[in-house]
Specification:
The complex is a heterodimer of chains A (84) and B (377). Chain A is built from two helices and five strands, in the order E-E-E-E-E-H-H. The radius of gyration of chain A is 16 Å and the shape is elongated. Chain A has a five-stranded antiparallel beta sheet with strand order 3-2-1-4-5, with no helix packed on it. By secondary structure, chain A is an alpha+beta fold. With 377 residues, chain B is α/β, with parallel strands linked by helices. In chain B, 38% of the residues lie in helices and 19% in strands. Chain B has helices spanning 10-23, 35-44, 63-66, 69-79, 102-107, 118-127, 144-156, 171-179, 193-199, 205-211, 222-238, 257-266, 296-299, 315-319, 351-358, 362-368; strands at residues 28-34, 54-61, 84-88, 111-114, 132-139, 162-169, 188-192, 215-218, 243-245, 267-274, 278-287. Chain B has a six-stranded mixed beta sheet, sandwiched between helices. A five-stranded parallel beta sheet of chain B has the order 2-1-7-8-9, with helices on both faces. In chain B, helix 2 packs parallel to helix 15 (351-358) and helix 7 packs across helix 12. Classes of the chains: A alpha+beta (84), B alpha/beta (377). Chains A and B meet through strand 4, strand 5 and helix 1 of A and helix 1, helix 6, helix 7, helix 9 and helix 12 of B.
């Protein structure tokens, strides 16, 4: 039940006094309550659990983690070009 | 999928696993608290690629599993009332009560509905002003802000035909209970990533210090899981007692402040019984007096309920990490996800369900492949 899915916030709006949004989970778009990530910007990623964003994903931390691991475990030329 | 596929990179996982093997020089016992992580370990087959000397113990982090039988019987009694629309997360419906489950209430004509979000339950209450809508608010800290918001919203919008049946539990008191128990063998913890997304991990360093147990806040993808284990094993080998964060993209030390504030406004801590374990002091939340009018246990008098556990099911010992599902004679025979004897066979976070789904026999193991490519739900 503590599963959370990362998704991209593509729209925000207010409903019944709550900050809500549309979140894109790799193509599937669902409504989520964004009241716990009040400073979220369009295009940013959140972890959604039972219809609520519980955390904003840090792009910086994600990049740093992956880069550090890749530097150790994979040769640069095996990674391929960066995604646009 | 961004923020998912990168963390399933087989080469990186292999590299980290290799380092884990090289780091281990002694036997260690590490517990993953969260049932979601139990499933991820078994689903991806990572637990079978670990050093032999590293023992993974599955923890009690399955809210459906630890919800006390008495409360499930109470839910069934409330759901059976004519005026009630009973709403719940899907996992709860097949959890056996003493005599039956919520599904059978529905089969007998009760109005039991599965909701994805607690706000959906509030909407059902607004759409049905002449009915009583009850939401079964189970969960750990991850789910608490969503559950709590439903009652805040109901109060704000004047939806007074809405109430919560609260079974809200907290991780830190459970860690105390496990580490302080007689015969405890847990030497390190993977702290549950999404619990920490909400609560941060400022509650954990004092626990790590008190019991001399290192921890790492851990996510749910293969790379996250192995990184968390590597952190903990490295600290165990070095004799370092600290709390590290292997899930920094989703967790900060302080956690989600707006969520914590709403929880503090809505809930207060209380002692709570965990199914199969017993009462753990201060391990639960209940509604504050301001929200007493929205408490289903106060709103509905269901009389005295005689609850009785299955005599065969060993879910209690499994939840405490004392046994694994395959040690149960009923596992996969008289107890299956279709006909469960205990909650651990029902929930998508229960250890029995994970073993049943991914590891029934060597034959099913080779058929299912258990690889990163085809191991997805």
């Amino acid at each position: 039940m503590c599963l959370g899915i990362p998704g991209k916030v593509i729209e925000t709006y207010e409903q019944d006094g709550l900050l809500m949004g549309k979140v894109d989970f790799g193509g599937a778009v669902r409504e989520s309550c964004l009241v716990y990530t009040p400073d979220i910007q369009l295009g940013e990623y959140v972890i959604v659990h039972v219809g609520f964003a519980i955390s904003k994903l840090s792009e910086k931390e994600a990049q740093e983690t992956l880069e550090a691991l890749r530097a150790v475990y994979i040769l640069e030329d095996e990674i391929g070009p960066e995604e646009a | 999928m961004k923020h998912v596929s990168d963390y399933r990179d087989a080469e990186l996982v292999k590299g980290l696993l290799q380092e884990l093997h090289e780091t281990m020089t002694k036997p260690w016992v590490v517990m993953e608290i969260c049932g979601g992580q139990t499933h991820a370990f078994v689903r991806h087959g990572i637990d079978q690629l670990l050093p032999e000397q590293l023992t993974l113990v599955h923890g009690p982090g399955c809210p459906v599993c630890v919800t006390p039988l008495e409360l499930i019987d109470k839910a069934i009694a409330i759901a059976s009332r004519r005026e009630v629309i009973f709403t719940s997360y899907g996992d709860m419906l097949r959890v056996p009560g003493t005599a039956r489950d919520l599904f059978s209430v529905r089969a007998e004509g009760g109005d039991v509905r599965v909701v994805y979000s607690p706000l959906d339950a509030v909407q059902i209450a607004r759409d049905n002003p002449d009915r009583e809508v009850v939401f079964f608010a189970i969960g750990f800290e991850t789910t608490a802000p969503a559950n709590a918001m439903s009652v805040v919203q109901a109060k704000a919008l004047g939806v007074d035909n809405f109430s919560l049946l609260v079974s809200q539990v907290r991780v830190p008191p459970a860690m105390h209970a496990i580490l302080g128990s007689e015969g405890n063998r847990v030497q390190g913890f993977l702290a549950a990533g999404h619990v920490c997304s909400v609560m941060g991990y400022w509650e954990y360093p004092p626990i790590a210090e008190q019991y001399g147990v290192p921890m790492s806040v851990t996510g749910f993808e293969p790379l996250d899981l192995v990184q968390g284990l590597l952190d903990v094993v490295w600290m165990l080998e070095q004799g370092e007692i600290a709390v590290r964060n292997a899930y920094a993209r989703a967790v900060t030390f302080e956690g989600n402040k707006p969520a914590q504030k709403l929880l503090a406004d809505t809930y207060e801590t209380c002692d709570r019984a965990w199914r199969g374990i017993g009462v753990i002091p201060e391990s639960g939340w209940r509604l504050k007096p301001d929200y007493a009018a929205f408490d289903a246990e106060k709103r509905f008098d269901v009389g005295a309920i005689q609850s009785r556990e299955s005599e065969i099911c060993i879910a209690g010992e499994i939840l405490q990490g004392k046994k694994v599902p395959t040690q149960c004679p009923a596992f996969g025979t008289t107890c299956t996800p279709e006909h469960p004897l205990g909650a651990t066979m029902v929930s998508s976070e229960g250890a029995c369900a994970a073993y049943y789904r991914y590891r029934r026999s060597p034959a099913s193991l080779s058929r299912s492949g258990m690889t990163h490519e085809n191991g997805r739900d």
